[in-house]
Design brief:
single chain; 509 residues; mainly alpha; Growth Hormone, Chain: A; membrane; symporter activity
């Protein structure tokens, strides 16, 4: 399949020849599996925090409130800041490590950054699996977070640089597909480990993170480095040979020369973090901050981090809650495949906009359904079977809307829009903002659920409305644009520059 396409530069259509080779296909699939560690952790934490043996050992007060206090408000069963710290501490660590990962990725290559991520995640999995005290759980989570910070910073960049631009969207979303597969696998493991006699199944769930860690470690050792990274580190001859191998053709001079020019420009940048604040990068900075912010305030964390906890809170039994999480995880995987098929066919904007509308409608329906049944006190009995089916159905439709829009595109668009001279720093900023708001939402979610009740869905729906309008007015289409040609087409609508200017000055000050 030919990867030819192009953009118009100075009235001339510019094409980079090349094929979708088996080599680059296998390479990108293997690299995308780096998303497994992120997805596995998202799914596993919510599952183990709903398991009675885990709660009884580490969080006895939550265990008593859940199982022994029949007067406890259903919305507030799991409201514990220490319990939420178990989940959220990982994302705070990921935010910090992603800043360090920027330097490693830029100076030593994408593969080494992936390797560090896998090793740190492996250490965290071992510590969590053998934990005897709460502090051991937190330390293990911090190591997991360090690993995720490195992997989430380097893998999307690696995929964007390796893939032919005509298929860049599909290959990059492979990272998000791996995230969703990791969530599904962890949900399935939680369901079965909860049935293990003796109450030690939670250890199996937590230590199971060693498997995706080993996958990314082995992958980082066998993957080739990207031509961009080779040029960045002065190995131009090897970079050109690598580019020929990746594209499957000998005529790569034009693309190679553009990469060299971009690299030379990047070498002039002594302080990429400071350069992010320059006027010419203002639009890119806006995207790097707002897209991860909106992604985390879409409400998806309510489902993915705490799915079993959430389902248990609204009336599902333990096994039913874990199985409902498996169902939503399966929907997440299938819907992400839709995005892989359509992102380079329909474009980024179309998926963003359709997904936003779908999510808002479902959030409103779920809020109404839970509000009618439980009101604000949450004391009414368990959900009837048909009612539970309706709630799960619309949550699945909501998850599917997210999975083919804000889920994968929230990682794809920021990773492809940055020029090489600021790419590592900007991607680190993107990951840091993402992890900070992931930490914030995961830390306060159970408290918000306790106080806002079903209104929590309306709260997140408001942000989905705002971010959908933001995409409509401010995001240019990047489908089919070579990664080194982004600067030539990156123009925001003039009446949005006021908003852009305000955000720039807030960040600068």
């Amino acid at each position: 399949m030919s990867a030819a396409g192009g953009i118009h530069v100075g009235g001339r259509k510019k094409d980079y020849p090349g094929n979708l080779t088996p080599f680059v296909t296998v390479t990108c699939i293997l690299a995308a599996m780096g998303g497994l560690i992120f997805g596995y952790d998202i799914g596993i934490s919510g599952g183990v925090t709903s398991m009675d043996p885990f709660l009884k050992k580490f969080f006895p007060s939550v265990y008593r409130k859940k199982n022994l206090d029949i007067t406890a408000n259903r919305y507030c069963r799991y409201n514990s800041q220490i319990l939420t710290m178990f989940t959220s501490s990982l994302y705070l660590a990921a935010m910090l490590s992603s800043l360090v990962a920027s330097t490693v990725t830029r100076k030593f290559g994408r593969r080494l950054s992936m390797l560090f991520g896998g090793l740190l995640f492996l250490i965290g999995a071992l510590v969590n699996g053998f934990s005897q005290y709460v502090w051991m759980l937190i330390v293990g989570r911090i190591f997991l977070g360090f690993g995720i910070g490195f992997a989430n910073q380097s893998v999307p960049i690696y995929l964007s640089e390796m893939a032919p631009y005509k298929y860049r969207g599909a290959f990059n979303i492979g990272f998000q597909l791996s995230v969703t597969i990791g969530i599904l696998v962890s949900n399935i493991l939680n369901y079965f480990s909860n049935k293990i006699k003796g109450g030690w199944g939670w250890r199996l769930s937590l230590s199971g993170a060693m498997v995706p860690a080993l996958i990314i470690i082995i992958g980082s050792l066998v993957l080739p480095e990207t031509p961009n990274s080779m040029i960045e580190r002065g190995d131009c001859d090897a970079a050109k040979a690598q580019l020929k191998r990746i594209r499957g053709v000998e005529e790569v001079d034009e693309e190679f020369n553009d990469l060299v020019v971009a690299s030379e420009a990047s070498m002039q940048v002594e302080h990429p973090w400071r350069n992010l604040l320059e006027r010419k990068y203002r639009s890119h900075l806006t995207i790097a901050v707002l897209i991860p912010f909106f992604q985390q305030f879409s409400g998806i964390n309510v489902i993915m981090f705490y799915a079993p906890v959430f389902f248990n809170s609204i009336g599902f039994k333990n096994d039913a809650a874990l199985m409902s999480a498996v169902i939503t995880g399966g929907v997440n995987v299938v819907a992400t495949c839709v995005s892989i098929y359509g992102v380079d066919k329909w474009g980024r904007r179309a998926l963003f906009l359709e997904g936003g509308v779908q999510m808002v409608i479902c959030q409103a329906i779920v809020a109404a359904a839970i509000g009618v049944k439980f009101g604000t006190d949450g004391y009414i009995g368990d959900l009837p079977k048909w009612y539970a089916v309706v709630v799960v159905l619309f949550i699945c439709i909501y998850v599917s809307g997210y999975a083919w829009s804000w889920g994968p595109l929230g990682w794809l668009v920021p990773s492809e829009i940055f020029p090489l001279e600021i790419r590592s720093a900007a991607q680190s900023l993107n990951v840091s903002v993402n992890m900070f708001f992931t930490f914030l939402v995961s830390q306060i979610f159970l408290t918000m659920l306790c106080h806002m009740k079903f209104g929590l869905f309306i709260f997140f729906a408001f942000f989905v409305v705002v971010m959908t309008f933001y995409i409509y007015f401010m995001l240019p289409e990047t489908k089919g644009v070579p990664i080194e040609g982004m600067s030539r087409v990156w123009k925001l609508r003039s009446y949005c520059l006021i908003f852009d200017f305000l955000l720039f000055n807030i960040v600068k000050n």
